[in-house]
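Lecture 7 notes. Example A: sequence first, then its structure tokens.
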Amino acid sequence: MKRALKILGIVVVLAFVSYSFTNFNENNLTMSTKKEQSNDSILRHVVLFKFKDGTSPEDIKKVEDAFHALPSKIPQIAGYEWGINNSPEGLDKGFTHIFFLTFKSEEDRAIYLPHPDHKAFGAVLGPHLDDVHVMDYWTK
């Protein structure tokens, strides 16, 4: 009888964990990738650059200037910020520049990505780029 109760207890715990994990995945993970969070949500496009060793300050300035010009050329960009890493943690893995774009919809981002001015920017960046990290998310 004790063994049967112990097994029943384990089954109940496993069922609860399974249920909780399933609900976490459905409610939390899906929500973070869902197309629209709410009417107030905006789509963030975060881009980090790591330049090749030996890239001159002048070439980095050309890349910065070319990126700064994109919001005036591509009206789907609803917001723009940028900066140079100054974290004291030492976890940047060589990434120095971060660009933070805001879009009102996935459709606006879909126009931006293949846009000729975005492609032209890529031609300026390409010779100097060692690595890039891009992540997008809907604000909550």
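Example B, a different protein, same format:
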Amino acid sequence: MPPALESATRPASLGDASAIRTRVWDLPTRVFHWALTVAVIGQLATGFGGVMEWHFRIGYAVLSLLLFRVIWGFVGGRWSRFAAFAYSPGSVVNYLRGRPHPDHLIGHSPLGAFSVFALLAILALQVATGLVADDEVMSAGPLTRFVSGATVSLATGWHTLVGKWIVIALVSLHVLAVLFYVAVKRRRLVRPMISGDKLVADGRAAPSRDDAASRLLALVVFAACAAFAAWIASLRA
């Protein structure tokens, strides 16, 4: 690999004089990440514990967060947008062969992007099936009366018997991948998701917008998403 390309595809370090601190993860994305983490843990705990009233409440919070992330994936900061980590098959192959694009070391890598999309998809499916699930004992989703009995039965089976284990598997894989990158590749993934900043070589990466206006926009978007989730909750008999 030519020296210039090797330098461009190597993570910046504290000792790299050419590296500058760059805002990669905007505040709304960071709040979403940690709020979803807490909410998913709460969902699993209340689900296994049979605390169904809180299971529903946290489920509506997850719905709000997922709706927000979908919208923020189009209007959020540079590195939070789906376009920034929706990689082509060729780009993924090059990454796996050890020829990463410089962008792979700034935002989500191709494997990290796959993890994000997979988690968002399975959580969305869990929320959707939960809204039309019915255990016929003590709890039923708010939308059960709008779908057929066959759909309710299928959704309930997926939500209670299959989906939750896939969520656990994906979350576990995500945590293991983060530990691998920290321990083996010496790449800090947790700290930037707290501070929002990464050291970027040569300062060539465009920072994510993270000012008062963008944060206000995020607050308005989330309020709208939460209002929609509250309306869905109000349909529960």
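Note on Example B: The chain has one domain: 3-14+21-234. The chain has eight helices and two strands.
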